[in-house]
Amino acid sequence: MQHSSRQYTQLQPEDRVTLASLKQQAFGVRAMARVLKRSPSTISRELQRNSQDDHYGSATAQRAWQTRRRQSRPAGKLHPSTVTFDVVRHFLGLRWSPEQIAMTMARVHPKGHSYRVSTETIYRCIYAQPVGELRKELIASLRQARNQRVRRSKGQDRRGHIPDRLSIHLRPPEIEDRQFPGHWEGDLIKGEGNASAVGTLVERTSRLLILVKLPHPKPATAANLLQAFTDKLLSIAQPLRLSLTYDQGKEMAYHRKLTEATGIAVYFCDPHSPWQRGSNENTNGLVRQYLPKGTELSGYSQAQLDAIADEINGRPRKGLSVRSPLSVYAELLANSHQHPSTQQ
Question: What is each CA distance from 299 to 8, 196, 225, 232, 275, in whole angstroms?
Fold first, then answer.
């Protein structure tokens, strides 16, 4: 007769209690194996390794097994006692994402160095921490401070339609390919009860972020958005102010006036298609580290929003070869002045 699926090597604590009882009753090794539905070699090893002075006790056997298990496993690369953990914790405190930390450490240290660590290892370290202040601190530093790693749910867009809008499918292919700078993506992030909002503008080539303070009250009205976005877009050098891709929110109802005032062409995404503004969606997640959901946003000044944008723009990005949006944008701006013929 074949043994059941429980014929694995490791004994459970309740098995050791049963084994201790059978040992006291002078059962043989094979008889014990039949009762526990284990291999006789498993029972023999257990008795040899965890007996003391030919006496087998369940509690002492369990402690001996736990001690050997701890000693046989080297400390993890991100064990709280390691230097690497301190480095990762430091950058998490600066609101760097695990991916940004992993990329930077890989860039600084050669392949095979003990300080190199993968993005997945950082996430596992964070969520493997026991319940306590350290776990709370590490999770709170993540862009989406969730207690568990879960997929983002998809909401439904209940907003109305905008007349005379240009579809994203009419957008020139060089915008899609990010061949030339000056093409932006825009959106709003809402505050508590949707009573306050902040505008976000992201340049597709450099991923540079601009945060826009909106008037209060009713910040998401078309008139308020038109005025705030016009002022910000006009502060951008004309060679880097070519197009804007937006979702189908009704706050962009005055898109024609925005084009007339700034010269920027406005394209609209398909309904329920946030990936068509991927750079903006990703950057909104970074902004939420500073302006969490449920926050009253009307109290933030433009200077405070600019400071937040500067900090985010100073982080390294994987898509920019671990350079920051600020450095890439500065390079693009310098090139645009050197080659004015590239203006569209």
Answer: 61, 9, 17, 19, 30
